[in-house]
Amino acid sequence: MYAKLEVIKWLLPLSLRSISMFMRCLILLFLWIYATLAFGQTKPSFESEKRKAATDIFAEGIEEQDSLKMAEGYYLLGKYESGIGNFLSTKYWINKSIAIYKRLPISVQLGKTYQWLAFVECSRKNMKEAVAYSDSALVIFKKLNSPKGIVSNYMFVTDMSHQYFRKSPAVVLKDFDAMVLYIIQNNIEDELGFMYQMKGDLWIETDHQAAVESFLKASYWFNKYGNGNINALNYRLAYCYAKLGKPKKARQVLGDGSFYNQDPEQDQFLFPKLSRLKAETAIFEAEKNWLKAYEMQKKYTELQDEIHTKEQNKLVSSQNELDVTALALSQEKELMLQSEVLRANQKKQYLFYSVGGILLVFAGTFYYQYAKSKKLARQYRQISEKNKLLIKEQSHRVKNNLQVISSLIGLQINRLQHQDLKDLLEEMQGRIAVMSLLQQLFYETNDTVEIDAKVYFAQIVDKTAIIFNKSINAAFLIENEQITPNLAIHLGIILNELLTNSFKYAFGFDNPNPSVEIAFKVSDNELTFEYKDNGKNGQLLVFEKEYYSTYNSFGLSLIRLKSSELGGTYSFMHDNGLRFILKCPSHETKSVNS
């Protein structure tokens, strides 16, 4: 019994110590787990959060089968991948976004996507592609009347022209005031801050005072609308003040640098930090503190090297990262896109089959109609050829009959002794000759719709000269040479009567060189026919002033009748011979019936 008590006495402190040690370990384990859960997790970076948001939008688009959300997800993935040196991944996602947007109705978002792709190509120094994408974005913005898109494109092109094409600020800013006015007119003044910041960035190395004025205006508009990066703007402003020899003003604007000191390891704070170091270097130089200026310049160079190294590393590994990312994030997305493409292809196939069937029906109907029309055309051609032969034969016979009549009249003239009867028969022979000439032109030409006025008038002159057995000089001033047969017969009869008058009265006596002038033209819907001879026998009755208006000979009656039928006005004048002018509306001559 005593021994048992001794053992219990020895074991009891040991047990108590073990329990105490166990409890301590348990408490330490709990504290370690709590610390791990509370503080041990890595806080997601700003870029990671944005990528997650873009992925969530894409997943939502897949779940809802919403192509617009899927395209937006691709676009945001590309936009947030365009950090330091990640341009290959950016272009991959942006191209996928464009592939979807192109299948949808044109939208402003497609223009933004093209513009972002232009930024990517510009960063890769591929300027030809950058300009092409920028022009495509501008076309879309103008077509959809998007003022913000137009302004955004203007700022990109302006910066690209200065930074990569080395154009001077004065050249690239020549349309700046006009664009500011455009912004005000379209009520998008929240863009003015970015416009003036861009202008200041262009002048920052060449005209510090102009840069300060632009940055101050940008600061005003950023503060008014609560947009823009005021800290980054102040770093630029401080740099310009320092360059202008105002270090106190520069330090006042510079601030304490709390913006980038929050988390200087994150990529989005590297460039503001670089800008601040540049401003601090300029301030120390303005204060003649060369040691501090050297230190700041050294830090500035080290940060530049760090950024450059990160860019190089990301560019080297971007292709591998792209493959891994694409495999991890896009399997389901690719399947979804492929299913959409399959459905679209099926719709195209159905449409193709439908259109093909309709085209086959139309083709069969067309072939039937074509064969029928061809048969009818062949029959019509045969009838037409037969009619042409009949018409030519008829014209030939009429011409021959008229020539026979004219010859008979000529034989009768030769047998007559009475001069008055001879004159009457010669006039009749001339009128028959006019109709014979017109019939001959119908017979000789393939086009019976219109005849050549110059040839027609010349042949009338020649025939009349043969009848009166006297040669004359004839001059023709002919415009609009093609005339209708109805008009030709009227003008031919008038011309024959005038020529007969000239041969009988004007070309005898002391006129050794008889001549006539015949003019014809149609202009401003008015037809003008003019006849003139050089008759010189002023003692004859025909040269009296009132002869042609009062005398009622058969020839003058024909001239008056045909002129009236043409709906025109005529006049006779004496100017070194007889002059006749006929004017009538050209549309009246088209409906006249001979």
UniProtKB/TrEMBL annotation:
Keyword entries, A-Z: ATP-binding, Kinase, Membrane, Nucleotide-binding, Phosphoprotein, Transferase, Transmembrane, Transmembrane helix
Stretches assigned to the Signal transduction histidine kinase subgroup 2 dimerisation and phosphoacceptor domain: 393-463
Classification lineage: Bacteria, Pseudomonadati, Bacteroidota, Cytophagia, Cytophagales
Membrane-spanning parts: 350-371
Catalytic function, reaction form: ATP + protein L-histidine = ADP + protein N-phospho-L-histidine
InterPro entries: HATPase_C_sf, Sig_transdc_His_kin_sub2_dim/P, TPR-like_helical_dom_sf
GO molecular function: ATP binding; protein histidine kinase activity
Protein EC: 2.7.13.3
Protein name (Swiss-Prot/TrEMBL): histidine kinase
Enzyme kind, highest EC tier: transferase
